[in-house]
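A quick aside before the break. I want you to see a complete sequence-to-structure record at least once, exactly as it would be stored in a machine-readable document. Don't worry about memorizing anything.
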Amino acid sequence: KRFDDAKVAFQYVLDNSTDPNMDKRAEKFIEYTLDRKALEAKRSNWFFVDGVLGLMYDSNIILADDQLTRNNDVTDENGWRFLAQLSPKVRPYYSESDEINISLNLTTLKSFDDGFGSNDVAATADPIVVGLNVPWTHRTTLSGKGFFFDLTPAYETIIMDLDGTGNATITNSIKLSMNNTLVINKNWIAKADYSFASNDSNILGDEEGADSISGAIKFSSIFILNKDLERYLIPEFSYRTNDATSSIYAFNRVDLGVTYTSSIFDKFMWNNRVAYFLANYESTRVDNNYTLSTGVSARINSNWNWGLTGTYIINDSTTNRYNKYTIVNTFSFSYYVS
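That is the input. The structure line, written in tokens, reads:
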């Protein structure tokens, strides 16, 4: 944990080397030692605030009533959407093997027309999401390999103005998730995540039809493709089910996806993702959804990051067909108090 000594050693290499490859690796190790030093300092902190501020252009803001009732192509409002997320967190307990956090999560979207004027129709698609999470993290070894899990009970409320008459609570959910991470070797990290939820919903006057018990399982891996930690391949598979009272809301869904991430121009990360899901509803609805996205991100300083992502979606459905694209510009931040 002698981070300052390591930084001085790598800085000497950087100042005196004439080998460009050696210079590049020294820069990477300096950045790594600074990150590790910040992580060690962060362990003694008890209060954290993370958040995201974003501006999105959405070519087709899909409305809740479209998803439920329309039987043809869904073509709705296009325009700008402002995104804000805030997650204050306190950590009352921390040790080398365990920690407990209490986190309040707030998310909101606000839609505008192309000229940033009000759009009452698109505004019915804007949620306010309030959640309370209490994750317990445990770190240990499994067969000699690094392993940790997060066990998180949570409560979440979604508030929307679905019919233009004013905000109302549409869903209250009690959730439990368990996320498991195993470090197989220096180039392979495996993850298995499980989640369950009990959802009490009132959607467009239907007070019982959307009530459900939902569950999901997700397997993913992170493959590190080069020794400089610049390229990653992340395949994913998930299965989820929503056992709702009404067949309109009851479905089974399979997701497949792969993400490739690479460092470019030294300071930027380039992210590319291809994803597909098949959703089968107990009603006659079947969705085949294809997503392609690409984006770049960069660290501005130790507290702020910037990202720009473009996404194109094709939803080939028996009842809700649509194509859309989004362009999202985000600034994310993270602060802590010792």
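Two observations worth writing down. The chain is about 15% helix and 60% strand. Residues 270 and 294 are 7 Å apart (CA to CA). We'll return to this after the break.
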